[in-house]
Specification:
This protein is α/β, with parallel strands linked by helices. The protein contains 8 helices and 5 strands. 31% of the residues are buried.
Length: 203
């Protein structure tokens, strides 16, 4: 089974991925943030590095999805290949931070990859307000995220909502503004119960 967690920067994807992997004994596939050679450069000079960063993510996630399908194991994935293509890349293009030529090239590459992979069995979307995202981003204190603007997060949130609105697969929406899965076992328990009900409905 392939479960994926989607959501804006700071929504709690990685944290929930790890907690659910532990609870269900699933294998966690985390986003490649530590070894990503473009992230620092991108946040310092978005226009110069946006295409490189997006292609790096696309390559990394395409590889992940192929491995997930080939493994035959139960896997939970932190962020999907679709978020790059439907949210992050179009947003950079709309903000004038990715050229038309690069964006068309990127889209063509994604379309090819999409034709070769299957979506997750269940997509869990973590819905969050901007103040909550900002609070979480500051709390984790990653240097390269210090320059993320409210405007940038807001644009991403709008694109997430539009994408989720039209999403065709099995979808579970969790509002995370008033949840604390780390320190409150009851909150985590409620999330797990919701997931249990969704997964049981698959069989």
């Amino acid at each position: 089974m392939h479960i994926a967690i989607a959501g804006n920067i700071g929504a709690g994807k990685t944290t929930l991925t790890k907690l659910l992997a532990k609870h269900y004994n699933w294998e966690a596939q985390l986003e490649d943030v530590v070894d990503n050679p473009y992230l620092d450069d991108f946040y310092n000079q978005m226009e110069r590095w946006s295409f490189n960063l997006q292609v790096y993510f696309l390559n990394s996630r395409f590889r992940q999805v192929l491995q997930i399908r080939q493994s035959g194991r139960d896997i939970i994935q932190d962020r999907t290949i679709y978020e790059d293509a439907h949210i992050f890349a179009p947003n950079l293009h709309a903000m004038g931070l990715m050229t038309n030529r690069d964006f068309e090239n990127y889209k063509s590459l994604f379309d090819l990859m999409e034709s070769l992979v299957k979506g997750p069995d269940v997509l869990i979307y973590l819905r969050s307000s901007i103040p909550n995202l900002v609070s979480q981003i500051h709390k984790r204190g990653r240097d390269y995220e210090n320059s993320i603007s409210i405007d940038y997060l807001s644009r991403l949130n709008e694109r997430y909502e539009a994408w989720i609105h039209d999403y065709k697969g099995k979808l579970l929406i969790i509002d995370v503004d008033n949840l604390n899965f780390v320190d409150n076992p009851e909150d985590l328990g409620n999330v797990i119960n919701t997931i249990d009900a969704e997964i049981n409905g698959l069989f």
